[in-house]
Write a structure and sequence with these properties.
The chain is α+β, with helices and mostly antiparallel strands. It is 35% helix and 28% strand.
């Protein structure tokens, strides 16, 4: 399916079957979630497509929330990676 003229689109793959698509023009912002799973691959996992039309305010709040969550998770992952390094660098006498 072609993107309508004057519409900007960005596709963000999540994994092999899931993706987030963002469509926009001068007046609208749409967020579309897609899952494409062939029945022969997994009969129990359904394909779907859902789209939401977002107001400017909602899009802004969603963007800020996603940025905040990503930053928080990045910091937590960094702390977890540094924890094993800190344990390895402790002298044998202080590890008891």
């Amino acid at each position: 399916m072609a993107t309508p003229k004057g519409t900007r689109t960005i596709q963000l793959p999540v994994n092999a079957t899931d993706a987030v698509h963002v469509y926009s023009d001068d007046q609208h912002i749409w967020l579309q979630l897609r899952r494409a799973v062939p029945t022969e691959s997994d009969i129990g996992r359904s394909s779907f497509k859902v789209a939401l039309s977002l107001t400017v305010g909602t899009a802004h709040k969603l963007g800020l929330e996603l940025l905040n969550l990503a930053e928080r998770n990045k910091d937590k992952q960094k702390a977890k990676q540094q924890l094993p390094k800190a344990k390895q660098s402790l002298p044998a006498s202080s590890a008891k």
